Amino acid sequence: MEYLVGQRWVSHADAQLGLGVVVEIEPRRITLSFPAVGEERTYAIDSAPLTRLRFKIGDHISTVDGVELLVTDIEEHHGLLMYTGTDHHEASVTVSELELDAFVQLTTPQQRLLNGHFDKNEDFALRVATLEHASRLQGSPARGLMGSRTSLLHHQLYIANEVGQRFAPRVLLADEVGLGKTIEAGMIIHQQLLTGRASRVLILVPPSLLHQWLVEMLRRFNLHFSLFDADRLAEMPDGNPFEAEQLVLCSRELFEGRQELQQLALAAGWDLVVIDEAHHLHWSEDAVGEDYRFVESLSACSAGLLLLTATPEQIGQASHFARLRLLDPSRFHDLATFKAEEQQYRALSAMADSLERGKIPAELPADLDPNDPPEELIEQLLDRHGTGRVLFRNTRDAVAGFPQRILHRYPLPQPEPYALAQVDLAERLHPELPYVDDSWLDFDPRVEWLERTLKTLRPAKVLVICAHAATAVALEHHLHMRAGIRSAAFYEGLSIIERDRAAAYFADETGGAQTLVCSEIGSEGRNFQFAHHLILFDLPLNPDLLEQRIGRLDRIGQQQDVEIHVPYLEDSAQETLLDWYDRGLDLFRDSCSAGYMIFQNFRERLLPELEQRTEQFETLLTDSAEFTLRTRDELREGRDRLLERNSCKREVADKLVEEIRSLESGETLEHYLEALCDAFGVDQEFHSEHTLILRPSEHMLTGHFPGVSEEGTTVTFEREKGLSREDMEFITWEHPMIQEAMDMVLSTELGNAALGTLKLKGVPPGTMLLEALYTVNCVAPRALQVERFLPLSPIRLLVDARGKQLADLVPHARLNSLVERVKKPTALAIIKQVHQEVDAKMAIANQQAEARLEEILTAAEQDMRNDLGAELSRLEALRELNPAIREEELEHLRYRIEECAIHIQHANLQLQALRLIITT
Ligand SMILES: Nc1ncnc2c1ncn2[C@@H]1O[C@H](COP(=O)(O)OP(=O)(O)OP(=O)(O)O)[C@@H](O)[C@H]1O
After folding, report:
1. Domains, the chain
2. Is the dihedral of CA 609, 614, 620, 625 positive or negative?
3. pLDDT of amino acid 721
4. Distance between CA atoms of residues 86 and 81, nearest Å
């Protein structure tokens, strides 16, 4: 080996030393300085673990003066290498190796392989597997949807997929109570974040739901939201607090009367704003509430907006319209037109039905071609004339699988003080209201009944709901202090912590409260389906509120029939209202999305009956029941049906479920995580089937492995187990542990250079094979989603001694099982001899990969143009008829197609891993 002072060498025993400069040569010893680490090392010349650093044409080098060059030519002068290259001004510059920057990292597979920095064959295999999995996930139709810790429910996956794919989704999620709107919103947020379409998200909810949202986002989607409340804001340093976090959760009330805070939230800018229980936003044609105005301003400065409500018309059709207007002001600009359009939806649904039966309706809109297949016609009808792009609503009927609701009525005698005192309607319905003290507890028969009933139902958990906070507080106090019943109160006056403590006490299976006494507002949106007894201490004067109450228990996850107990005072407004809800609306047995509309329809006849029941009441009941039946039928056949068709297309949802199940089935993920743990030095212990305990070991490759705590983390690959065992992490391809570990592999050189031997029948010993793995590297803004059409697309090549391609003949997995490791000294000896041969094979591999790249890029561009082009033509056709399509969506799509094409055309190859194999 010829050493000369000034030459650059690298230590293959210790890659971290960086580049070494020969500073002294003695007869048997050689000294190198390693400037990057400020060390000098002396070696015996015969056994120095050194490899001459020779850059290649095409490599990027940098000099001590900070000049960056792309090498175009290399010559040797008196034993020193002279590199000629182009700098960033495209000027040609020649530098001697003396001038090279010592901090140079040898990271490319070729540099590492030729400089003797070998990885284990297992690490090489891990790198290849990582690239293949990453590429497959990028192209998966279930991207962003497979990682949630939820049951795979069709209606939710459909909506999440449909909405999550949109640029800047602006929709109203209006599934009936308890069908999982929070979960749908979580899936959409997760998908938008994972695919880079959104990075800043603001969620506004009622105070009682803050904690529930925080926990649901974390537990089900691994999304860490920061909860902003008055205390947190007070503690934050100067500056805009909303800019300090990307994912923020706070209550709408936080902004009430605080203009300055509103301005800060607006100034921070968001990609997606989510408003839960959106029916509370105040809007009427005469008066617009501060809350509505604030959300309207937020909506104007955020690309995406999700509004959630189970009872969109709870405050009437006008305010329902107002929320749609927030989503798409250019579409929903006039209430009267909107009302007229609503009438059309029913006719459209009837048309869709006839099409389904194979009949072309005479009144089919002119823009549809009756010769198209009926399925396509239905799609076009819904697409072009329905409300589906903005409004999603699934009903219990459509989702199915819900338990029964059973009503129990308890007539109680009217006590004298109430009979004498009642004046207005509110007091008739809630006779305890006027009492400033708790004296009503002594004579109101509902109190004694409540005490008795709770004792009879013991140990079953019972949720009690009443209209007012004061009633809830007094009742709970009584139950707790006087009746010895374990209870807690839950109402709007409590702090968030107190509320969560009360809910947790109620949820606690052992030693928790038997009953939780809630006020109307306090309990909205909460999950109490672990109980199946509901006591309605009074009844609200709005069917949608009653539906909200029942929905606390009658929601996804309810295992038993829901027992609804209603105590009421005989011959009172309560009895009349109960009769009307029960016999007029049949609301206790079946939810009714038109409850408020029916109430409005009969309001004028109903209210006087609540004051004083007359003989007319029976007729009112019959009329209401008939009207309800008709309305239910109409809805079933009309608007709801139309919405359902848009809110869940079974075939699409089936495919998503199938895709997720297939990604979860088998043991691919399990084996992959095991390989990751082996590579990074994480210990694995068997826990139970498809479940492991992971612990950091003493031989960790890096200081930390994502998601593995010091005391150990239990992980399961089974969805069912993941759902029932809160103490375990449910691992999917989208779990942060896997995503971050994949990033760790791909952002370092782990496994990118390896050497092994192989016995192959018929191949003479000493033959060289080069296995190379390339990916397609497309640098593009994440929001463009280019990887949907152009994923990493790993290209594997296996070049033999004569330059023949053997990749198909000897697949990677088979090669892995045959390759044997080589001891480092032998490997170094081999590599020194095959330098030039490797270069020659690399040139062949590069050429072949380039040819493949061209094919891949052409196909990707075609795919992209087909896919986005079809979407564009569909939207352009739609826009002619349906102003629900916003112009900016079209513009964005056109821009996106051209931008994607440019980025695809500029994609290049990246060599990801190289393995040299010698036959023995
Ligand atoms: N896919 C799912 N897998 C498991 N649990 C689910 C799923 N979807 C919903 N749930 C559970 O069902 C309950 C209802 O869901 P969620 O709170 O999202 O409903 P909602 O439609 O927002 O209700 P509300 O109308 O009361 O606001 C919650 O306890 C939720 O965790």
Report:
1. 8-106 (2.30.30.930), 154-331+390-394 (3.40.50.10810), 336-386 (no CATH), 397-480+516-648 (3.40.50.300), 656-748 (3.30.360.80), 752-920 (no CATH)
2. positive
3. 87
4. 17
- Angstrom distance (rounded) from CA 495 to CA 502: 11
Pocket test for ligand 1, best of 158, 211, 523, 527 (most atoms within 8 A of CB): 527
- What per-residue confidence (pLDDT) applies to 1? 58
Nearest to 772 by CA among 752, 758, 802, 788: 752
Ligand 1 center to residue 491 CA distance, Å?
Answer: 21
Residue 388 has pLDDT above 60, yes or no: no
819, 917 Cβ separation under 8 angstroms: yes
Residue-wise burial string across 85-108, b where 16 or more C-beta atoms lie within 10 A, e elsewhere = beeeeeeeeebebeebbbebebeb
CB of 116 closer than 6 angstroms to any ligand 1 atom: no
Sheet holding 60-62, edge to edge: 60-62, 68-77, 80-86, 92-96
Q: Nearest 5°: CA angle at 214, between 209 and 220?
A: 115
Query: Residue 733 burial by CB count (10 A; 0-12/13-18/19+): exposed, middle or buried?
Result: buried
User: 741, 676 in Cβ contact below 8 A?
Assistant: yes
759 is in an annotated binding site: no
CA of 906 to the centre of ligand 1 (A): 45
Collapsing DSSP to helix, strand or coil, 742 comes out as helix
Pairing of strands 226-228, 201-205: unpaired
Beta carbons of 313 and 597 less than 8 angstroms apart: yes
In the reported structure, the alpha carbon of residue 418 is separated from the centroid of ligand 1 by a whole-number distance in angstroms of 40
Distance separating alpha carbons of residues 150 and 146, to the nearest angstrom: 9
> For 365, phi and psi rounded to 5 degrees?
-55, 150
- Give the pLDDT confidence score for residue 422 in this predicted structure: 63
Tell me if 723 sits within 8 A of 150, measured CB to CB: yes
Q: According to the model, what pLDDT value does residue 493 have?
A: 83
Reduce the DSSP state of residue 25 to 3 states and report it: strand
Ligand 1: residue of 153, 161, 179, 182 to mutate (most ligand atoms within 8 A of CB) is 182
CB 194 within 8 A of CB 145: no
DSSP annotation of 783 reads G
Query: Which one, of 113, 91, 1, 34, lies nearest residue 835 by Cα?
Result: 113
Name the DSSP letter for residue 279.
G
Tokens 């374990």 belong to 486
ipTM of the complex: 0.98
Count the Cβ atoms, other than its own, within 10 Å of residue 759. 11
Q: What is the largest CA-CA distance in the chain?
A: 122
Collect all residues with Cβ–Cβ distance below 8 Å to 738 and sequence separation of at least 6.
669, 672, 673, 676, 731, 732
| Angle, helix 639-647 to helix 154-164, in steps of 10 degrees | 70
Residue 892 neighbours by CB distance under 10 Å: 16
pLDDT at 898 over 90: yes
Token pair 């990075």 is found at: 199
By residue count, the chain amounts to: 920
Element (H, E) at 300: helix 290-300
Prediction pTM value = 0.80
Q: What is residue 177's three-state secondary structure?
A: coil
Residue-wise pLDDT for 816-866, tens only, equals 888 888 887 888 888 878 878 888 888 888 999 999 999 999 999 999 999
**Coil/strand/helix, residue 329:** coil
The closest of 714, 765, 768, 762 to 737, measured between CA atoms, is 714
Query: How many Å apart are CA 352 and CA 336, to the nearest integer?
Result: 25
What does DSSP assign to residue 225? P
171 touches 304 (CB < 8 A) = no
CA of 228 to the centre of ligand 1 (A): 23
